[in-house]
Amino acid sequence: MTVRTRVAPSPTGDPHVGTAYIALFNLAFARQHGGQFILRIEDTDQTRSTAESEQAILDSLRWLGLEWDEGPDVGGPHGPYRQSERKDSYHDYAMRLVEEGHAFLCYRTADELDQLRDARRESGQHTALKQSDLALPEAEVEARRAAGAPYVVRMKVPEEGVCVIDDMLRGTIELDWGQVDCQILLKSDGMPTYHLANVVDDHLMQITHVIRGEEWINSAPKHKLLYQYFGWDMPQLCHMPLLRNPDKSKLSKRKNPTSILYYQRMGYLPEALLNYLGRMGWSMPDESEKFSRQQMFDNFDIQRVSLGGPIFDQEKLSWLNGLWLREDLSAEQFALAYQQWALNPEYLMQIVPLIQQRVEKFSDVAPLAGFFLSGMLNLQAADFDYKGLDEEQVRKVLQFSSWLLDTETQWNKDQLFNQLKQLANGMELKIRDFLYPLFIAIAGTNQTVSVMDSMAILGPDMTRARLRHALNIVGGPSKKEGKRWEKEFQTIRSQLVTE
After folding, report:
1. Is 316 one of the catalytic residues?
2. pLDDT on residue 497
3. Is 380:473 a contact under the CB 8 Å cutoff?
4. Which helix (H) or strand (E) holds 265?
5. Which DSSP symbol is given to 70?
6. Mean pLDDT of 106-119
7. Which residues are within 8 A (CB) of 451 and not within 5 positions of it... i.e. 6 or more apart?
8. Are 372 and 351 a contacting pair, CB within 8 Å?
9. Distances from the Cα of 111 to the Cαs of 115, 117, 187, in angstroms?
10. What is the pLDDT of residues 147-195, one digit of tens each?
11. For residues 458 and 442, is the Cβ–Cβ distance under 8 A?
12. Is residue 236 within 8 Å of 208, Cβ to Cβ?
């Protein structure tokens, strides 16, 4: 048997360090066994998936040195490697399950589903819906079918009993079928859900080992059942511990930058970031902290993975990156690497047109444009003092802008200005006053180039990180304020959407 592993990211945002973490361990396991590693794009969410996000995933993983044997850009014998290009086959598999009695057409409306869940909740039951909950009288089913009502395809699941899952790290896991709902397999628009597409693709691509995050443990019974329904052999499962913030919560962008692009923009070496991800829950036999990708592959044993939640600590990452900079780069290599990071023509030519008209000599450039080549700025709460805004307004501008830009997908200066101008109007602030805290957060001063140009050049990852950094300095909302602010923001946001 040839070992075949895969990573299957969704192209719905910035490439996540968690994706790189799982990809690294899948690649290491495949290389340890002389196997193959596959990259598959799971773009079943057509409303959020973008070509830009997919390209960012490919570029980021390749920047880290995570090469795949098969994928959407390199091809392979089991393509296509985008789920959106395999849509028709999923429909056929879903209908096969319906014909064989393992799935059913569900005509329930969203309101009816909410009522069913509320009823179960009020009676003290799990909210997982079963076929007995979802069943409609045959006459009603026929009426809805005749009227062309939308439907989904749901799988049948046992209403009671225990599902036993064998995990490479955790041994035997028992999960209660009572907590597993009749999962939607095919949505009303004909696109599959992750669960159907994942199982079908893993089978057709001959995946032998599924190494994924532990958040998927609760989905394992559904996947095991689908393999049984189809009569296929199930890959071996291995659920990796989740990356954690220093406070032990699940790694999230609200507390820790999670975008690979952020760490690239901050000036971390790819070798150091990959080294750090390799240390997340795993260790070398000699316990050495600094090791190359090849050294990890040569010594890899998945049984050395610890189930304790690995802490993603930026200070420790910076320390490790410093070792790589000092120990693995000569002075000449350091200078070249810095030039490629900060002074490459592509990046410089975004900045030069903005500052050229503002300088009289080259020594003016660093004070004016230094924030483009920096990480988190050295700011104080007093830097945000401004006659046009009181303290709470400054904090709200930063928080509301952060919430707004967290979901912005069209990252260009015109779109940013349009969205932030509408937010300023909704907050009943003059745009000049509204932008002052953003200038300080992004550039450290308002005596510089347009903050919209700055955010566009710095990119979403660095912009969002600097806004969160500024919030930490001036003080984000308390729990009480947070509820009130979020309600106010959502009211403004609904107006933005409808305008």
Report:
1. no
2. 61
3. yes
4. helix 260-266
5. B
6. 94
7. 435, 438, 439, 442, 443
8. yes
9. 6, 10, 17
10. 999 999 999 999 999 999 999 999 999 999 999 999 999 999 888 999 9
11. yes
12. yes
Q: How many CB atoms lie within 10 A of CB 381?
A: 12
Helix (H, G, I), strand (E, B) or coil at 90: helix
Q: Is the pLDDT of residue 79 over 80?
A: yes
Whether residue 257 has pLDDT greater than 90: no
pLDDT value at 378 more than 60: yes
Sheet holding 103-106, edge to edge: 103-106, 152-155, 184-186
Q: In this structure, are residues 237 and 168 in contact, taking their beta carbons and an 8 Å threshold?
A: yes
As a whole number, mean pLDDT of residues 371-400 equals 96
- Which phi and psi angles does 275 have, rounded to 5°? -60, -45
Per mean pLDDT, which range of 86-90, 194-198, 433-437, 492-496 is the poorest? 492-496
Statement: residue 498 has pLDDT above 60: no
Rounded distance between C-alpha atoms, residue 199 and residue 186, angstroms:
13
Q: Is residue 86 within 8 Å of residue 203, measured between CB atoms?
A: no
Backbone angles phi, psi at 18, to 5 degrees: -65, -35
What type of residue is 364?
D
Q: What is the pLDDT of residue 61?
A: 97
* Cα gap 274→24, rounded to integer Å: 8
State both tokens at 159: 């209403």
Distance separating alpha carbons of residues 445 and 246, to the nearest angstrom: 31
Q: With CA atoms as reference, report the closest residue to 27 among 62, 59, 66, 57.
A: 66
Taking the C-alpha atoms of residue 62 and residue 68, their distance in angstroms, rounded to an integer, is 9
Catalytic residue among 156, 253, 290, 413: 253
Strands 209-213 and 236-240: parallel
What is the Cα–Cα distance from 496 to 431, expressed in whole angstroms?
16
Q: Which tokens sit at 447?
A: 């005596």
Residue whose tokens read 């390209």: 55
- As a whole number of Å, the CA-based R_g of the chain is 26
> Position 108: which residue type?
R
Read off the tokens for 280: 């997340």
Pairing of strands 103-106, 4-7: unpaired
> Whose CA is closest to 155, among 213, 230, 57, 73?
230
| CA angle in degrees (0–180, nearest 5) for 303-33-282 | 30
CA-CA-CA-CA torsion sign (185, 190, 194, 197):
positive
Are 228 and 199 a contacting pair, CB within 8 Å? no
Q: What values do phi and psi take at 305, rounded to 5?
A: -70, 130
**Structure pTM?**
0.91
Q: Which residue has the tokens 């997908």?
A: 409
- Residue 49, CB-side half-sphere exposure with 13 Å CA sphere: 13
**What are the CA-CA distances from residue 100 to residues 59, 199, 223 (Å)?**
43, 17, 17
Reported as a single tens digit per residue, the pLDDT across 284-297 is: 999 999 999 999 99
Strand order through the sheet with 236-240: 171-176, 162-167, 236-240, 209-213
